[in-house]
Every structure is written in structure tokens, then in C-alpha cells.
């Protein structure tokens, strides 16, 4: 798969130990700024979270060691089970739909036509909107009394649905707005990937006279696969960490139907003042995402074609 | 590139030093005045009134300066306080909502104002008793009441007339309420263009509907005789509230307006429903914004009980413990200023919150305002008619925020056809678990 990498000469370990030590230290020096930043803002909080998950703790810190009790409590609680369900559904609703939509838009705008820049700007514009601002816009659109969705439903003669108050629809409604919010970023990345594909390939295809779909299947998608792999991985992780739109649109309700794990962590830590339970949930979520990402690299990367 | 990196690292170092040297929250200003920080949760128009009141205080004397800082919603500001409480950075005065009372007392980081009341023989009888008693535990006044509100029934008088109801005679009992809601509901085919009633999915309204029947939220006399150990809201009285919502929802006369106050008020103003429960603090805005006449009435109650009145909502002011003596003095002086009749009258008129000092109602600006908004007076009368008891004093538990979420989940499950008793029992079981867990806190 990676012939180029294998051919690179491996530096011999035995030669010039003194210079090696210096190079080693020099390397560390270059890494130091990022190690400090990661250490302070990522690694320390992570280990602190794992530590806190074994304690009864409030916002002032831990006060009683309880071992695995927090985990037992969470795993046996109905509320956490519904959180897991909501999270999985949310990921399934948002990731495939978001990537397919972005891929479709990117393929549309990958042509060299006059004025294409306008469409490219439009399709990527959601990237420039903050989650909070977009959520508020969607909140108005979903409003049963004054929102545009109920107006359309009324016009079509359907009964108005209370999108955000009905547990059957709330998660779908939040997912729809999330797909819209994330489409801009995915679109931009995929478009970049498309632009990178060697045009000679398409010229050859034209000479061979293959159909568009064949060209898409045999040239575009394989050449795009590293980009797609990146965007799938990042979208998955993003979807698991979604917070802003849920906080603004539904606050985890109705009947906990949108209470995804991240929101449940927030509620436990900052509203219910139960930092121990929140930490334990965070640890569980961390390992789930880690496992999923590892699986993706193991299974998904085989299909990725690196040039 | 190198320059950029150098620039960035300089910025980074600056950032680090800036972090470590945030100036302490309170101190002494250059002109010898003692400066204190006042955290509050009053956003929007209310923030402007708070700032105006503080400005007036600052110019009214030359010993102390108060700096007001808006900290977001009640929940958010409580969260923020928890992270700095007990340190030198804690604000001298913080506004905390009623449900955070027990958490504040248990935290051990606050100075009960009783100390200053005793030192000065400050006359607390000038306060509204129903309000100050909420913040009193074992006869000790912990915090200074500041902004208080109660729930009321707001209704659309024009819709009442159209439905052939007397707009001056609002329903008081549940059966009257159901009857009126039925008449007010307008159906066109399978679509309802106007519902009868709406109650926000918010735990506070349930607590109020329970208390007005004399019902207890938790055991041990609402946690005021001893630490609460079990939920008691799933008794007959609590069931009556849930049954009312469930019955009316099934009949199609009840509108589910979600969890958002603004959404509910918007629906009321656009005529989606003709009656709703609202906070007395929202009444003035409602009257100003509605293009119909708004009526205000007491909280409804089941047919066979004597209404006991209401629990106060809103917030009080808490003093930090680990701050310097002169700052505590400043905080106390500021609190006293806020509870004078003059300031309270201004506050009542601008915000719609109650005056904690009833003498405020004698001030001219209040009298003028009541002529313009007679609805405001109803909300005050309801508070005065309240029978003081542990039920109307409200529950004293530290896990209030979580208990409220459980009630909300219970209310929401009613719209899915859940049995009222089952929904309440489930909420009660959850609250029991949390109470048990909470009892193990420090």
C-alpha cells in the first residue's frame, strides 16, 4: 500500500550516539509548545476526569472514594440507556445524510461554469455561522405558532407538528438542523478533494467514452477516498460531541428524547452538581469514540486509495 | 514565519500571565472607597433597571462602590459561583434563585445576614413575611430577599367574551377551569385554532399547584423539620395536578407549549391558547405586548380544597463569607439600600417583581402604575392571601434543579399517554435516588 514509505532509508541506531542525543533533545524542544498546550488543555483534564469518575464529587472537587459505584449507577439507570439510544440515533441521522448531501453539492459545483463561485460560496456559507446563531434561526422555523414549517404544513393542509415538543420528532428536528450546520464544512473539504484529482484521468475517461456513473465509481470516488475517510472520521467524532444545538433547541427534552450523552454530562456536572457521575459518563463516551475511531481506521482505511 | 512564531509565543506568554494575575474580585478603589462586586442574573430590560439602581446607590453615599456583573441565567450564575465560592475571587453579593437556597446554605461559603440584623437590631418586620420566611431556616435569616414572583393565571379577556364567558370572572377551581377551557377551544375540522389552557413544562408550576392544596414536595415537612429523605409529591394532591393536565390534553383543550417561557408567551399572544399560567414578573410585558385585553387571576385549585396560596419564586441576595470585614459591611449596606421602600417601589414598577417591603405599595409611582396595570395588584393580593405553612414556604432541598427536571420529564410523558400516577411515581422514584445520593455530599 505504501511503497514509498518502505523505501525510505532507516537511520542506523548505532552511528554517532552523541549527535543522536542532541537531535532527540532538539526534537523535544520543537515539540515542547504543543506538548505544554496539549498537556494543560487535553491530557491533564482527561486524567483528572478519569480520576474524578471514581469519586463522589461536586464542583469543588472530590470528597468520597466510591470505586466503580458511579459506573454501576450509570449503567443501570434508564436515563443513561435512553441517552445512549439518542446518541446512536443522532449519529445515524446526521453523519450519512450530512456527508451524502455535501458530496452531492460538491459534485454539482465541481464543474467549471461561469458564476460557479457564487454557488460554492453559498453552499459553504454555513461554515461561517456559529452553532448558537443557526440554532436560534432553526428554533424560530420550528416554532409551532409562528414558524415557517407549520405555515407550510398549514398551507398543504397537514396538521401542524410541534417539532421540538414531540418526542417522536424532536431528535429528527435537531438532526436536520445539524446536517444543515455541518454541511458547509464537509462540502468545503470534499470540494477541495475533488479539485485535487488529476484532470488527465477524466480526459482519458472521455477518450474511452465511459458513462458518468462509471467515471464516478472508478475515478472520482477512489481518488476522493482519503478525503472521504477524513470527513467520515471527523463527522463521527463531531456528532458524538454535539452540544450547542441541543442546549438551545430542546435542552435534552421532551421525555429525554434528545438527551444525548454529552448533554447528560453537562446536566450532571453543571446543573445537578454531580461531577463524579458526569466524569464517569465522559470516560465511557471517550472509550466508545476511541473504539469506534480505531475500528474505522482498521476497517475503513483498507478501502482508502492513497496516491 | 519565524517572526510569526516568535510573535505567537510572546502572545502565549502574555496570555499565561494574564490568566494568573486577574485582579481580585473586590478591593479598595483609589479614592479610598470600598469596592464590592455584585453578581446578578437579570438580563435584558431588567439589567438596565438593576444598573440604574446600583448607580443611584453609588452616588447616594461616598463609602462604598458596587459593581454589578451580569452572569447569565439563574442556573448559570449558580454554576459560576460554585467554582469561585470560598476563594478571594468570590463576589461579595450574589443573586441566587429560590431553588438554590439549600445548596447555598450547605456550601458553607456564605455569611447569613442574620449576623448583621442582630448587630444593628435591623427591623425585619418591615419585610413581606411570606417572602422572607422562604429564606429563613431555623429562625435564622440566611439571605436578603430581592426579587420575588408568584404564579398566576393569565387569560385572554377578548376570547372569554367571544366564548360567552364572563371576562371578569376567571375560573378558580379545576372543574371551572376545564369547563372554561372547553368553551374556549375552537376546532376547525381536525385542527384546533384555539386551545383552552397551557402550562409550561417547568417544575416550578407543579410545585405551586401542589402547594396551593397544602401538599408537600418532600417529606420531613418539606425538608424544613429535618433533612428530606423521600419525595412526597406523588400523593393524591400531586396526582390531581397531573390528572388535570392529562385529562385536558386528552380532551384536546390543553396546549403543550414546551419548556421555553418566550415560546409560551408568543403562543398566548398569537391566540394559540386563551389561558396560561405565568410568573407575576412576566405580566407587565404580557399586557404591553398583547393586542387583546389580558386578565390576571389567582392560581386554580382542585374543587374540594381550600386554596392555601402560593410559594414565592424569584431570588435573594447572598453574602460571601471569606471576604474582608469592610466588604461585608459594604454588602450589608447595599442590601439594606435595596430593601428600602423607595428602591423597592421603583423595582416593582420596572420589573413586575414584588416589593419585598410592603411600604413600597404606598409610594406614588406604584399607585400610578397600578391604575395603569390593575393586573399587577392581583399578583400582590394573591401573595398577601397566602396562608403561611411549611407547604407554602416551599421545599428546602439541595437537589432542586434535578428534581425539577424529573417533574418536567413526567409532565412531558403525559402527552405521550402515560398514566398520571405512573408518571408521578417514576419521577418520585428518581428524586428518591437523587436525594439519597445528595445526602452523601460533603
From TrEMBL, chain A:
InterPro entries in the record: ABC_transporter_permease, MetI-like, MetI-like_sf
One of the GO biological process terms: transmembrane transport
Pfam families: BPD_transp_1
Cross-referenced PROSITE patterns: ABC_TM1
SUPFAM superfamilies: MetI-like (SSF161098)
Entry's Gene Ontology cellular component terms: plasma membrane
Record-annotated ABC transmembrane type-1 domain positions: 84-296
Keywords assigned: Cell membrane, Membrane, Transmembrane, Transmembrane helix, Transport
Spans through the membrane: 21-44, 86-109, 121-141, 169-190, 221-240, 278-297
Subcellular location: Cell membrane
Protein topology in the membrane: Multi-pass membrane protein
Family per record: Belongs to the binding-protein-dependent transport system permease family.
Annotated protein name in UniProt: Sn-glycerol 3-phosphate transport system permease protein
Organism whose genome encodes this protein: Terribacillus saccharophilus
Automatic annotation (TrEMBL), chain B:
Family designation: Belongs to the bacterial solute-binding protein 1 family.
Location(s) in or outside the cell: Cell envelope
Superkingdom to which the source organism belongs: Bacteria
Protein name, UniProt field: Carbohydrate ABC transporter substrate-binding protein, CUT1 family
Keywords, alphabetical: Signal, Transport
Lineage: Bacteria, Bacillati, Bacillota, Bacilli, Bacillales
Cellular-component GO terms for this entry: cell envelope
InterPro entries for the chain: Bact_solute-bd_prot1, SBP
UniProt KW Signal keyword: yes
Signal peptide boundaries: 1-25
UniProt key word Cell inner membrane: no
Amino acid at each position: 500500500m505504501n511503497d514509498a514509505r518502505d523505501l525510505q532509508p532507516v537511520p542506523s541506531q548505532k552511528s554517532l550516539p552523541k549527535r543522536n542525543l542532541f537531535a532527540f533533545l532538539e526534537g523535544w524542544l520543537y515539540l515542547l509548545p504543543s506538548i505544554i498546550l496539549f498537556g494543560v488543555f487535553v491530557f491533564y483534564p482527561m486524567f483528572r476526569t478519569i480520576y474524578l469518575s471514581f469519586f463522589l464529587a461536586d464542583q469543588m472537587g472530590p470528597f468520597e472514594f466510591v470505586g466503580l459505584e458511579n459506573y454501576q449507577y450509570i449503567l443501570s439507570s434508564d436515563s443513561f440507556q435512553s441517552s445512549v439510544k439518542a446518541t446512536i440515533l443522532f449519529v445515524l441521522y446526521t453523519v450519512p445524510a450530512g456527508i451524502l448531501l455535501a458530496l452531492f453539492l460538491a459534485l454539482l459545483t465541481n464543474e467549471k461554469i461561469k458564476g460557479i463561485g457564487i454557488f460554492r460560496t453559498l453552499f459553504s456559507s454555513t461554515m461561517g455561522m456559529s452553532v448558537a446563531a443557526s440554532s436560534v434561526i432553526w428554533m424560530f422555523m420550528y416554532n409551532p405558532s409562528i414558524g415557517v414549517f407549520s405555515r407550510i404544513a398549514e398551507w398543504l393542509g397537514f396538521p401542524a407538528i410541534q417539532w421540538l415538543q414531540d418526542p417522536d420528532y424532536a431528535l429528527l428536528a435537531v438532526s436536520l438542523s445539524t446536517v444543515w450546520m455541518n454541511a458547509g464544512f464537509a462540502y468545503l473539504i470534499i470540494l477541495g478533494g475533488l479539485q485535487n484529482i488529476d484532470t488527465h484521468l477524466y480526459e482519458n475517461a472521455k477518450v474511452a467514452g465511459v458513462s458518468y456513473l462509471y467515471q464516478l465509481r472508478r475515478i472520482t470516488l477512489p481518488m476522493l477516498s482519503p478525503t472521504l475517510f477524513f470527513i467520515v472520521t471527523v463527522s463521527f467524532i463531531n456528532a458524538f460531541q454535539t452540544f450547542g444545538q441541543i442546549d438551545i433547541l430542546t435542552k435534552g427534552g421532551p421525555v429525554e428524547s434528545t438527551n444525548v450523552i454529552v448533554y447528560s454530562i453537562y446536566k450532571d456536572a453543571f446543573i445537578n452538581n454531580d461531577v463524579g457521575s458526569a466524569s464517569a459518563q465522559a470516560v465511557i463516551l471517550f472509550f466508545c469514540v476511541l473504539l469506534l475511531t480505531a475500528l474505522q481506521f482498521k476497517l475503513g482505511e483498507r478501502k482508502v486509495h492513497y496516491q | 514565519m519565524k517572526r510569526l512564531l516568535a510573535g505567537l509565543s510572546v502572545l502565549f506568554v502574555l496570555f499565561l500571565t494574564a490568566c494568573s494575575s486577574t485582579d481580585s474580585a473586590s478591593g479598595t478603589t483609589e479614592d479610598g472607597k470600598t469596592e464590592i462586586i455584585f453578581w446578578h442574573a437579570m438580563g435584558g430590560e431588567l439589567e438596565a433597571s438593576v444598573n440604574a439602581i446600583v448607580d443611584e446607590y453609588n452616588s447616594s453615599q461616598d463609602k462604598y462602590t458596587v459593581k454589578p456583573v451580569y452572569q447569565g441565567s439563574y442556573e448559570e450564575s449558580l454554576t459560576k459561583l460554585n467554582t469561585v465560592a470560598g476563594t478571594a475571587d468570590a463576589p461579595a453579593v450574589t443573586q441566587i434563585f429560590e431553588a438554590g437556597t439549600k445548596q447555598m446554605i450547605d456550601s458553607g461559603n456564605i455569611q447569613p445576614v442574620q449576623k448583621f440584623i442582630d448587630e444593628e437590631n435591623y427591623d425585619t418586620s418591615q419585610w413581606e413575611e411570606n417572602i422572607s420566611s422562604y429564606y429563613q431556616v431555623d429562625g435564622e435569616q440566611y439571605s436578603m430577599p430581592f426579587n420575588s414572583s408568584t404564579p398566576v393565571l393569565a387569560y385572554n379577556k377578548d376570547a372569554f367574551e367571544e366564548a360567552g364567558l364572563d371576562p371578569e370572572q376567571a375560573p378558580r377551581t379545576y372543574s371551572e377551569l376545564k369547563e372554561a377551557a372547553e368553551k374556549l377551544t375552537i376546532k376547525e375540522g381536525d385542527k384546533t385554532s384555539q386551545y383552552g389552557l397551557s402550562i409550561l413544562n417547568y417544575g416550578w408550576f407543579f410545585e405551586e399547584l401542589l402547594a396551593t392544596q397544602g401538599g408537600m414536595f418532600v417529606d420531613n415537612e418539606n425538608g424544613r423539620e429535618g433533612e428530606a429523605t423521600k419525595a412526597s409529591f406523588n400523593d393524591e394532591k400531586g396526582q390531581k395536578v397531573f390528572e388535570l393536565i392529562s385529562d385536558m390534553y386528552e380532551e384536546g383543550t390543553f396546549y403543550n407549549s414546551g419548556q421555553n417561557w418566550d415560546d409560551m408567551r408568543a403562543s398566548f399572544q398569537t391566540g394559540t391558547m386563551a389561558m396560561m399560567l405565568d410568573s407575576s414578573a412576566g405580566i407587565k410585558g404580557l399586557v404591553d405586548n398583547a393586542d387583546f385585553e389580558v386578565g390576571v387571576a389567582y392560581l386554580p385549585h382542585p374543587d374540594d380544597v381550600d386554596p392555601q396560596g402560593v410559594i414565592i419564586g424569584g431570588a435573594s441576595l447572598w453574602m460571601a463569607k471569606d471576604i474582608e470585614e469592610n466588604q461585608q459591611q459594604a454588602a450589608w449596606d447595599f442590601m439594606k439600600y435595596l430593601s428600602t421602600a423607595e428602591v423597592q417601589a421603583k423595582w416593582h414598577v420596572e420589573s413586575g417583581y414584588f416589593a419585598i417591603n410592603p411600604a413600597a405599595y404606598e409610594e406614588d409611582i406604584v399607585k400610578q402604575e397600578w391604575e395603569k396595570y390593575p393586573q399587577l395588584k392581583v399578583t400582590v393580593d394573591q401573595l398577601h392571601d397566602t396562608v403561611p405553612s411549611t407547604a407554602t414556604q416551599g421545599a428546602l432541598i439541595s437537589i432542586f434543579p434535578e428534581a425539577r427536571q424529573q417533574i418536567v420529564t413526567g409532565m412531558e410523558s403525559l402527552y405521550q399517554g402515560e398514566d398520571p400516577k405512573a408518571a408521578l411515581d417514576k419521577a418520585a422514584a428518581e428524586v428518591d435516588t437523587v436525594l439519597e445520593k445528595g445526602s452523601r455530599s460533603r
